[in-house]
Design brief:
This protein has 578 residues and is mainly alpha-helical. The protein has two domains: 22-426, no CATH class; 433-574, 2-Layer Sandwich (Transcription Regulator spoIIAA), CATH 3.30.750.24. Helices cover 64% and strands 6% of the residues. The protein has 24 helices and seven strands. The chain has helices at 2-20, 22-28, 35-60, 64-81, 93-107, 111-134, 146-163, 165-169, 178-187, 194-213, 219-234, 261-293, 299-315, 325-333, 340-355, 365-379, 382-391, 393-409, 411-431, 476-489, 509-523, 544-549, 551-554, 562-574; strands spanning 89-90, 322-323, 435-441, 444-449, 462-467, 496-500, 528-532. The chain has a five-stranded mixed sheet, with helices on both faces. α20 links the parallel β5 and β6 (496-500). α3 (35-60) crosses α15 (340-355) and α17 crosses α18.
């Protein structure tokens, strides 16, 4: 008996660990045959994460070492809490830009205040993710449609790309917004610093060449190493080429930010936007690689994992992180099998922080700008725009409007614009669903849309109508308009209008009142309004006693099939008038 109880306890523990700490379950049941592949992939991921973390720190507006912290510690957290075997977490271009856009005005040029606000923002973002995950809100990833997310990331990519022009070309950038930076570029072409432009152009060429012909090599790391070497050999600092400067060695110290009540509300608002965008982007990456490797992931667990990653990053003075598509692609290409890849990559970066930070002082800023520029170009999704152009001009318009909104309103307001456009698209789709007049098709059982079958036969005096969507307050008037339009088009006078309610899963009280009014209006014209194939679940949001006692809901017979409607109509037609 005791052995059986212990077995049940162990099984429950395994289930709990699999639910909340899936990475730990992977390590408890680790297969040694995966070790070599995971080590190789981990070292490759570290070779990419280091320079990218340094580069993205520039976008976030903090010293380079905090980019390394943000790339390092979240890897350890995700290895335990993440459900994806391939996903690599770390800094993301869009998230970093959102951080800079949020904190710049609040910090008012004070670096210390900026750091305190950044840590607070990162921790709040992490708390949002964990709370959403525990409440099983993983479905929120679906609230940014693919076209709108493409449009958003395209806009972010263009902002980042234009923002790197001053560092790539060596002129002083002062403009704040996207269009201002473009105008500034055209005005300061004569102020380009030639050595800086040559180094930056060479870095760009190297990165594109390696991406095209040697994608398995750590292109960013090679660009950094060669940039440092060129600066050292040619003494480019003396020729005006700006360099990164000293990077502190050693591991990060845990730090709790000072609490500022006056800015808490606005930080919460920004953190909510960052949590939504970063989770949506990260979960798309996780799902994509999980699909390729044929295993499921848990969106709610991913929320919790991203939350823990952000809290760890914030405590180490880092900025918000998410799933990184480029680094995940490196992991997948190098054959990474499990979450151990993140631990190996983090260990390699720890060694770097302890012993190899000194050479980074000579890293030219223009090389970092080149790395950021290439990463931002990778965000631009032209193939999706071409697909939308061919498939759906309406959704293409939503995508392009989102991009324009990002460029004009800046990143943070555009988050809410993207959400509003998503809801607008949902309302448009739900407010005018497809409908059909049904008839019998010779040789085919059932009743079908007469628009699809020109030889379909309708029954004189009977209109069978199907509304292919839920009936709610925002589309009930459209429902009524379509019913009246079909009545007007009927070639014969109608006695019954029967609504096939099989596609309807939800109805609200506003719609019910309108339907009752429509029934009375049609009765005044000698037409009976009836319903068939009504689902019992339709009433789950209403008080059962109210439904059963309402006289209007029970005075008509219930039809479970359209065939029974036709049979009853035929029988009543045959009955002599009273």
């Amino acid at each position: 008996m005791r052995n059986q109880s212990d077995a049940i306890t162990a099984k429950n523990l395994d289930r709990w660990l699999h639910r909340f700490v899936p990475g730990l379950m992977t390590f408890l049941h680790y297969q040694r045959t995966d070790f070599r592949a995971d080590c190789i992939a981990g070292l490759s991921v570290a070779a990419v994460c280091l320079p990218v973390g340094i580069a993205y720190a520039e976008i976030a507006g903090v010293p380079a070492v905090y980019g390394i912290y943000s790339a390092l510690l979240p890897l350890l957290a995700y290895a335990l809490f993440g459900s994806s075997r391939q996903l690599v977490t770390g800094p993301d271009a869009a998230t970093c830009l959102m951080v800079a856009a949020a904190l710049g005005p609040l910090a008012a040029g004070d670096p210390q205040r900026y750091m305190e606000l950044m840590i607070s923002l990162t921790l709040i973002t992490g708390l949002f993710n964990i709370v959403f995950g525990l409440c099983r809100f993983g479905f929120i990833a679906n609230f940014l449609s693919h076209p709108i997310l493409v449009g958003y990331l395209n806009g972010v990519a263009l902002i980042i790309l234009v923002g790197q022009l001053p560092k790539l070309l060596g002129y002083r950038g002062e403009a704040g917004d996207f269009f201002g930076k473009l105008m500034e570029f055209t005005e300061k072409v004569d102020a380009v610093h030639l050595p800086t432009m040559i180094v930056g152009g060479a870095a760009l060429g190297l990165l594109f060449a390696l991406k095209r012909w040697a994608p398995r090599l750590p292109a960013a790391l090679l660009a950094v190493a060669l940039g440092i070497l060129v600066v050292k050999i040619l003494q480019l600092e003396t020729h005006g080429v700006a360099v990164l400067g000293a990077v502190p060695a050693g591991l990060p110290s845990l730090h709790l930010p000072s609490f500022d009540p006056s800015r808490f509300k606005i930080l919460v608002q920004h953190a909510a936007g960052i949590a939504l965008i970063s989770f949506t982007s990260g979960i798309l990456t996780a799902k994509s690689f999980a699909r390729r490797n044929r295993y499921p992931i848990d969106a709610n667990q991913e929320l919790i994992a991203f939350g823990v990653c952000n809290i760890v990053s914030g405590l180490a003075q880092g900025f918000p992180v998410t799933g990184a598509d480029s680094r995940t692609a490196v992991n997948n290409a190098m054959g990474g099998k499990t979450q151990l890849v993140g631990i190996v990559a983090a260990g390699a970066m720890v060694l770097f922080l302890l012993f190899f930070t000194t050479p980074l002082a000579s890293l030219p800023n223009t090389v970092l700008a080149a790395i950021i520029a290439v990463s931002s170009i990778g965000l631009i999704d032209l193939s999706s725009l071409r697909e939308l152009y061919a498939a759906s001009r309406r959704e293409l318009a939503f995508s392009l409007i989102t991009t324009a909104g990002v460029l004009y309103f800046d990143v943070l307001p555009a988050v809410f614009l993207a959400i509003m456009l998503t809801f607008l698209w949902m309302l448009l789709a739900a407010s005018q669903p497809r409908d059909a007049v049904l008839g019998k098709v010779p040789g085919i059982t059932g009743f079908h849309n007469i628009a699809d079958y020109p030889d379909a036969i309708t029954i004189p005096g009977l209109l069978l109508y199907r509304f292919e969507g839920n009936v709610l307050f925002f589309n009930i008037d459209y429902f009524k308009e379509r019913i009246m339009a079909e009545i007007a088009k009927s070639p014969t006078s109608l006695e019954w209008v029967v609504v096939d309610a099989s596609p309807v899963n939800l109805v609200d009280i506003t719609a019910l009142h309108t339907l009752l009014d429509l029934r009375e209006e049609l009765e005044g014209r000698g037409i009976k309004l009836k319903f068939a194939r009504v689902k019992q679940s339709l009433w789950k949001f209403f008080n059962a006693r109210w439904v059963t006692s309402h006289p209007q809901f029970n005075k008509e017979p219930r039809y479970n099939t359209l065939a029974s409607v036709v049979e009853d109509f035929a029988q009543r037609k045959q009955q002599p008038a009273a």
